[in-house]
Amino acid sequence: MADPPPTTLDDYAADASVLGVYQRVFAVLARESHAMVESADSVAIDEAILGAFAEAGPTGLAVDQVVAACSRFSPAQVRRRFAVLRSYRAVEKANDRPHELYYRATFAPYVMLLFLRRIRDSGGQAELHRLLSLARMSLDDPQATEADARSHLTEITNVFRLLANPLMQLATSAAIEELREQARPLLGNNELLTQAQEYHDAGAQRWPNLLPLCGQLRMALAAYRDAVSAAARRLLTHAGKTRALGLLPPERWRSFARHSDAATLAGALDGLLFDAPTPLVGVEELLDAVEEGLQTEGSRLPPPRPRIDDGPGPATPDGGDSERARLTAIAEELLAGSHRVAVAPLLDNAGGWPAARRVLSQLTAIHHRDELPYALTWGDGLRIDPEGARTWVSDGWFGRVEPAAGGDDR
Fold first, then answer.
1. Summary mean pLDDT of the chain
2. Which residue from 158, 267, 293, 396 could staple onto 343, CB 3.0 to 4.6 Å apart?
3. What angle do helix axes 190-206 and 125-140 make, rounded to 10 degrees?
């Protein structure tokens, strides 16, 4: 086996430069001496330190100034994270001289923090779209070389393999809860697959020597499609056909609702059972309200008195039926001169539920007195008001009735 060629000074300088950038980028992922990022607080402290350096300008900051600028965090935590960033040269001395007190920050760690946050928010899909776009622009460049295309093909192939492998593992052996939580950002990437396929076709057409690498990219894309299909199939099996709403973007559901007829929309809801709104009060409270309305206040009758010829006594309204007179007065007060009123406004005007319950019991008691010319009727409508004191009220009307000849017309 031939010995490798000797390393030149330029090669060593290039390798050292790459190593320096690599160390700076992965400073937030350090694993030595409490350098591992174990919580969101560590990332927030790193961002605060780098932000303080950005505001300080070219003169830099001393360690104590950094601690003062990050006063919302513990000084011990700030000093520990500062030491980690300094050990990985994410923070360097402003001047290379002994006993230098001022430091300055490099941009690479902050770029890495932004990158990590974007991956957390979008699952890395936006970065992959940008990677494919840049690779396609490089491919269309007349000055692009076969070596550049080979490097891009290898990178994109590895990306899709790293996407497919964990997704297939989640789809086949992970718990359904873990699949719902982690696989959702990796689904619905038809545009990404189309973009990768277009890049594959363009590269294979321009450089036929890259067909073996293009074949590996095709296999990686096929593995990713299979993993997405397996994950979606398992989610649909556990969630039901109409409940896996997160598998499609909201725009797709809006378009479906706008352009579908009534039969199609009804078919989407076939098999679903919608419960009626929960009443504000229980059954026992409603029965108590009705019983309260049916009770009479003058339940104790006076003892019989002997008939004497002292003349007629004081007349009582409606033949002495005080309860009938009281209910009549209540009915006239509720009608306020109208022939018929809706029940919902009466309950609204009463105020809170205890007062509205009293009105409802009075209406029910008046309705059940056949000798009174009033009736309470109910319809099929329903008024919904989630913010009101009564979340729902059935359509009802209370009004006068004209007694028909020979009997009651109610």
1. 73
2. 396
3. 20
How far is it, in rounded angstroms, from Cα 320 to Cα 379?
36
pLDDT at 160 over 60: yes
Q: What is the dihedral of CA 78, 83, 84, 90, to 10 degrees?
A: 100
Please state, in angstroms and rounded to a whole number, the distance separating the CA atoms of residues 134 and 124: 15
Please give the distance of CA 40 from its chain centroid, rounded to a whole number.
Answer: 21
pLDDT of 15 over the 70 cut: no
Cα separations in angstroms, 219 against 124, 198, 255:
21, 15, 34
For the record, the structure tokens of 70 come out as: 């990050």
Q: Which residues pair with 382 in a beta bridge?
A: 394
Rounded to whole angstroms, the Cα distance separating 200 from 197 reads: 5
SS3 314: coil
pLDDT band at 318 (very low <50, low <70, confident <90, very high): very low
* Strands (E) located in 267-405: 340-342, 374-384, 392-400
CB atoms within 10 A of CB 164: 21
Residues ≥6 apart with Cβ < 8 Å to 15: none
Tokens of residue 333, six digits? 């007060």
> Which tokens sit at 347?
């309950």
Among 94, 104, 26, 30, smallest CA distance to 66 is for 104
Strands 374-384 and 340-342 come out as unpaired
Please give the residue that has the higher pLDDT: either 395 or 68: 68
Please answer whether residues 337 and 400 qualify as being in contact, where contact means their C-beta atoms are separated by less than 8 angstroms: no
Where does the pLDDT of residue 33 fall: very low under 50, low under 70, confident under 90, or very high at 90 and above?
very low
Instruction: Tell me how far CA of residue 231 lies from CA of 161, 190, 222, 404, in angstroms.
Output: 16, 15, 14, 71
- The reply to whether the predicted model has a pTM over 0.70 is no
pLDDT tens digits for range 212-262? 888 888 888 888 888 888 887 777 676 544 445 555 567 777 887 888 888
Return d(Cα 126, Cα 114) in angstroms, integer. 13
Give percent of the chain with pLDDT exceeding 90.
1
In the chain, where the domains are located: 9-117, 123-255, 283-296+319-400
Question: In this structure, which topology does domain 9-117 adopt according to CATH?
Answer: Arc Repressor Mutant, subunit A (1.10.10)
Please give the radius of gyration of the chain, using alpha carbons only, rounded to the nearest integer. Answer: 40
Tokens of 260: 């579908």
As beta bridge partners, residue 377 has 397
